[in-house]
Design goal:
Blueprint lengths: L2 E3 L1 H12 L7 H9 L6 H22 L5 H16 L3 H4 L7 H13 L2 H5 L4 E3 L2 H19 L7 H21 L5 H18 L9 H17 L5 H4 L5 H11 L14
Antiparallel strand pairs: 1-2
Helix pairs in contact: 1-3, 1-6, 3-4, 4-6, 8-9, 8-11, 9-10, 10-11, 10-13
Length: 261
């Protein structure tokens, strides 16, 4: 069963990862750490995701019960964290400041976790859970690609795009917790509901729908503490239909993190 984490706890974990020593320039060192070349698309996607996490923590703290003085200290800590991704550290050897700066921020950011968790928390998947979900997704994609084309072809493509996005999140952002996984799962869930609507005729997609429903249900069971994604499922159905009409065949519904790596 998934354990629970929060954005501040995740940022502290990020700092621990960034505190490794490396003689390369910061951008190259972080690229190696994340499994991408420095300044590549995947590199920027992960950096952007981390920065979004920092923004989320900052917003939660600013609107929390914390007293004004501690809010100011927290804001300064988060500014220092974001500076790790500035030219000051990225253009110079990571050993010459970046790694030590990251290490110095671990404790201060960890202290924000109890406050942040009282407002925001979500599951954290372990490696076995991520691996099992990836196998299930791969099996479903094989079924999806073997299906016939028809009226629901654009919905099939939207599901495939959403699943590739979910794969990227699970593979490269799993250590950030399940919030990104849930966001990707929302896209898949929305596409499933669009396919299930009676607006379209049946083109032999019943097995595809059944398997997708099972896939979504199985992932949701693994994220047993996360229920809020189901409540938002209906909101984007009409949006999917509208975007599909404008942008087939690619359903680029997430402005920051779209498509497979």
């Amino acid at each position: 069963m998934a354990t629970t984490t929060d954005p501040a706890n995740e940022l502290a974990a990020v700092c621990k990862r960034l505190s490794h020593t490396d003689r390369q320039a910061g951008a190259m060192a972080l690229g190696s750490l994340f499994g991408f070349e420095g300044y590549s698309t995947g590199y920027y996607r992960i950096i952007s995701s981390i920065m979004q996490r920092a923004d989320q923590v900052e917003e939660v703290v600013a609107n929390s019960h914390m007293d004004p003085e501690h809010k100011l200290l927290a804001a300064e800590t988060l500014r220092e964290f974001k500076s790790l991704f500035s030219s000051t550290y990225l253009n110079h050897a990571w050993n010459n400041g970046g790694s030590s700066k990251a290490a110095s921020l671990v404790q201060a950011i960890t202290f924000l976790s109890p406050t942040v968790r009282s407002y925001v928390q979500y599951p954290s998947l372990d490696e076995d859970e991520v691996r099992a979900i990836l196998v299930e997704i791969d099996e479903y994609l094989r079924l999806l690609r073997s299906g016939s084309e028809g009226e629901l072809a654009f919905v099939r493509r939207s599901i495939e795009d959403s699943l590739h996005e979910l794969i990227f999140r699970l593979t490269n952002l799993g250590w950030l917790g399940a919030d990104y996984t849930l966001e990707g799962l929302r896209q898949v869930n929305d596409a499933y509901h669009l396919m299930a609507r009676g607006t379209f005729s049946d083109d032999g997609s019943s097995s595809v729908m059944t398997r997708l429903g099972s896939l979504i249900g199985g992932i949701n069971d693994r994220l047993s503490t996360a229920r809020e994604w189901k409540e938002n499922a209906a909101l984007a159905i009409e949006g999917y239909k509208f975007v599909a009409a404008l942008s087939m065949p690619v359903m680029a519904l997430t402005p920051l993190l779209t498509g497979p790596k």
